[in-house]
TrEMBL record:
Alphabetical list of PROSITE patterns matching this protein: PROKAR_LIPOPROTEIN (PS51257)
Ranges in a coiled coil: none
Domain of life per record: Bacteria
InterPro entries for the chain: Peptide/Ni-bd, SBP_5, SBP_5_dom
A biological process term (GO) from this entry: peptide transport
Protein's name according to its UniProt entry: ABC transporter substrate-binding protein
GO MF entries: peptide transmembrane transporter activity
Pfam families in UniProt: SBP_bac_5
Domain Solute-binding protein family: 84-420
GO cellular component, one term: ATP-binding cassette (ABC) transporter complex
């Protein structure tokens, strides 16, 4: 059992704090002046995960480039997931083709000009990569320059092309980024900060790019340190070694001045998936019995120390429109009597809280009359069994908004009859119909309503019992101004961020 944070001795943090001393010494070339209207101080950032692919935008490293405001995409997303202009100023659809007008007056960090051909090059590299960026998985996409516009054509009519092009994995870089065997973003972006140095998996340095089309950043630069150890990240905030800290562990949050931490709702739901195809939970009445037995409030309080939100549906507060659109009319089966029925629940160790969640669920379900066995392994060793339906139930922490910023893809993947991640083995005509409607509806209010209707159709089957929505705890030192708190983890240091 994990020792509560408040009982950890403060002395236990000293070694990791000492290891960080001096690790944020500035190595950038930016002038320590106030000519960006800030204080002239560089921003020291402690990030959780080191680069996995040398900061190639074709990998998940792309989200780091986005969070540092160094690489940009044609469009961005607003709070509701609607597309807004970035490197493209406007767009229009004609059947399978979307035409984007490229912003004039943009230069890359190497001084070259952004053109329609620049966009074609970056998007074509992404579309023909092996493997493709996740956002283009299953998508046939071709790109052609037409004057100062770019025509993006898909194999089938796709209402979400602008949202897809907001993915940091489709960042637009200058020609120099593509000269080697891998895509190298150093000095090749268009953002407010130029990436000037990558030190393997240890650190990165960025300097303000004064030619940024959106105006001059307030801070002269960013010094990034990759600190996988959560205790060390928390210690860096407590000691003043870092200005901004990603993902402070729940176990450390109580040891930090609460004015220095912000809990950001994540588009991630902790859900119990029930096997609807075979075994105990093929019976809808027993699925209902499992749902009624679960006390999510106890899990939030005991495992997450109150730093999570009890789920009202599959989509949580990171999607602020979801709660407003629900009407509370989901019709579910009546609960049956478990009567000592034996079930096996699987989960994984990679997320520290999940084994504890499993233990709590075991107690709750046994109290309701089930006999519960747990199977807990590393994710790499359990995923194939989960997807094959080898468990009666499976506990999963699942991102509900994937790269397009749209939850329809997650719902289809997890609950469509031919969904690629259908752990619940669900095959329901009403669900499939609702999912298709959501996928085919144009972006905007109508699509959001269709998504909520699809969520209701899934919940009516009790194939999945959403328990809680996770939060990420971000640490910001007292002098930090206007750092972003982004549920999608696309923004962190912006043009307006600086240290007093």
């Amino acid at each position: 059992m994990r020792l509560p944070a408040r009982l950890l001795p403060a002395a236990a943090l000293i070694p990791t704090a000492a290891l960080l001393t001096g690790c944020f010494a500035s190595s950038g070339s930016g002038q320590a002046s106030a000519d960006g209207d800030g204080s002239g101080k560089r921003i020291r950032v402690a990030m959780m995960l080191p680069p996995r692919s040398g900061l190639s935008p074709l990998s998940d490293d792309a989200f780091k480039l986005s969070r540092w405001s160094t690489a940009e995409t044609l469009v961005t997303l607003d709070e509701d997931g609607d597309a807004e202009p970035a490197l493209a100023t406007e767009w229009k659809q004609s059947g399978k083709t979307w035409t984007f007008t490229i912003r004039d007056g943009v230069t890359f960090h190497d001084g070259t000009k952004l053109t329609a051909q620049s966009v074609v090059r970056s998007l074509t590299v992404a579309a023909t990569a092996s493997p493709k960026p996740r956002i283009l998985d299953g998508v046939e996409l071709t790109v052609k320059a037409e004057g100062d516009t770019v025509a993006v054509t898909t194999g089938t009519e796709d209402p979400l092309v602008p949202q897809r092009l907001s993915s940091p994995q489709l960042s637009i870089l200058s020609a120099k980024a593509y000269k080697g065997k891998t895509v190298n973003p150093v000095g090749a972006g268009t953002g407010a900060f130029e990436l000037t140095q990558i030190n393997g998996t240890a650190s990165a340095t960025l300097d303000r790019y004064d030619g940024y089309w959106g105006g001059k950043a307030k801070a002269p630069g960013i010094d990034v340190k990759f600190v996988p150890d959560g205790t060390a990240r928390a210690a860096a905030l407590r000691s003043g070694e870092a200005d901004v800290v990603e993902a402070v562990p729940v176990s450390q949050a109580a040891l930090i001045d609460q004015d220095l931490i912000t809990e950001v709702p994540m588009p991630r739901t902790n859900t119990l998936y029930l096997n609807t195809e075979k075994g105990v939970f093929k019976d809808a009445a027993l699925r209902a019995a499992a749902r009624e037995a679960i006390d999510a409030k106890t899990i939030v309080k005991g495992v997450y120390e109150g730093r999570a939100d009890v789920a009202e549906g599959l989509l949580g507060p990171a999607l602020p429109w979801a709660a407003d659109l629900r009407d509370g009319t989901v019709q579910r089966a009546k609960a049956g009597d478990p009567d000592g029925t034996a079930i096996t629940i699987g989960t994984f160790t990679d997320r520290a809280e999940l084994p504890e969640v499993a233990q709590t669920l075991q107690q709750q379900l046994q109290k309701a009359g089930f006999k519960v066995k747990l199977d807990v392994r590393e994710y790499a060793n359990i995923e194939s069994d989960a997807l094959a339906g080898e468990f009666d139930a499976f506990i999963l922490s699942r991102a509900t908004v994937l790269d397009s910023g749209d939850p329809a893809a997650y719902l289809y993947s997890d609950f469509g009859s031919d969904g690629s991640f259908n752990i619940a083995q669900l095959a329901d005509t009403a669900v499939d119909k609702a999912l298709k409607k959501a996928a085919d509806t144009k972006a905007g209010d109508a699509r959001r309503q269709a998504v909520i209707e699809a969520e209701a159709a899934v919940l009516a089957t009790d194939a999945a019992v959403p328990m809680l929505h996770e939060r990420v705890i971000q640490g910001d030192a007292a002098g930090v101004v206007d750092v972003a708190h982004d549920p999608r983890e696309r923004e962190l240091i912006t043009i307006d961020t600086y240290v007093k």
